[in-house]
Write a structure and sequence with these properties.
- The complex is a heterodimer of chains A (181) and B (95).
- With 181 residues, chain A is α+β, with helices and mostly antiparallel strands.
- Chain A has one domain (6-178).
- Chain A is 41% helix and 17% strand.
- In chain A, α2 (32-47) packs antiparallel against α3 (56-74) and α3 packs antiparallel against α6.
- With 95 residues, chain B is an alpha/beta fold.
- Chain B has one domain (2-90).
- Chain B has 3 helices and 5 strands, in the order ββαββαβα.
- Chain B starts with a strand and ends in a 5-residue tail after the last helix.
- Classes of the chains: A alpha+beta (181), B alpha/beta (95).
- Chains A and B meet through α2, α3 and α6 of A and α1, β4, α2 and α3 of B.
Chain lengths: 181, 95
């Protein structure tokens, strides 16, 4: 399942790359409660797909982890528009999530001042158990996401700042590149 | 004592919800007697995430250790999440 398609991605990137405004209401989750409500709808919709019946809970779980990360890491510190963009297309097997938050580099630097750039921050976020909200055993969400993606027919493109991570079951690698919107 | 997690819903996600669930059962936990087991029943749970689990299950395991048991945990997201928590316990974060 590809987690971004061009049309959905274009809508999400238009929002995060454009001026500070709320996205279209049908894609907008201003609070984590709203996100949970829509996540529950995703769960119900995926449950009806025969080819995903065995592992749709894992798909919902990784969408939940990524979406909730946006709220957890930006609570009280949203630079402009709070909340997230959340859209999915079950026919195309695609999900898009986006936020206008602080970015992973900034949140990780609080506990890892040695983090050099967005690429370094993404590598740490996906491979190490560390959180911008340490101490504790937080910071396991993206590691969980990586494990699930590598074990199933799922592809993810994850962007933060000027970097992106690409992972799929096919290449079995965490590919991190520079990326500019 | 048995805790049916479906009472908190079939979609168990977010740290905040996990914390609230733990707080909700605190009166029951205080009434547990020595050596009483705590059974977490996942029947009816569809999606189970590490964030929710870390706030609920990890706290219970830290508090009650081997007295915590899991039943009806065949769901894939439950299995993968519990395994992640077990692996993290064995290899904790350096932070």
């Amino acid at each position: 399942m590809e987690l971004f398609n061009k049309d959905t991605f274009a809508q999400a990137t238009d929002w995060i790359g454009g001026s500070a405004r709320e996205p279209e209401a049908r894609f907008y989750c201003p609070t984590s409660s709203e996100f949970k409500g829509r996540l529950s709808k995703l769960q119900s919709d995926l449950e009806r797909l025969p080819d995903l019946i065995d592992y749709y809970p894992l798909i919902v779980a990784i969408v939940g982890e990524i979406g909730n990360n946006s709220f957890d890491h930006n609570l009280g510190n949203w630079p402009d528009i709070s909340g997230i963009f959340f859209s999915y297309d079950t026919n195309k097997r695609q999900v898009a999530l986006a936020d206008r938050g602080q970015g992973i580099l900034r949140t990780l630097k609080r506990v890892r001042p040695d983090v050099k750039n967005d690429e370094d921050a993404l590598r740490i976020a996906f491979t190490e158990v560390v959180s911008g909200r340490s101490p504790g055993s937080r910071g396991n969400g993206l590691k969980f996401v990586l494990g699930v993606v590598l074990s199933k027919t799922i592809e993810i493109n994850f962007f933060s700042g000027a970097a992106m991570v690409s992972v799929s079951n096919n290449n079995k690698n965490l590919k991190i590149d520079k990326f500019l919107l | 004592m048995k805790i049916e997690l479906k009472k908190f819903g079939n979609l168990l996600t977010s740290r905040q919800d996990g914390r609230e669930a733990l707080a909700a059962i605190e009166p029951l936990l205080l009434n547990m007697v020595d050596n009483e087991t705590l059974e977490l029943d996942f029947d009816g749970v569809i999606t189970f995430t590490p964030s929710w689990a870390d706030e609920f299950v990890t706290n219970l395991v830290n508090r009650f250790g081997m007295r915590v048991h899991f039943v009806n945990d065949e769901n894939l997201s439950v299995k993968v999440t519990l395994k992640l928590l077990q692996d993290l316990k064995k290899n904790p974060s350096p932070n």
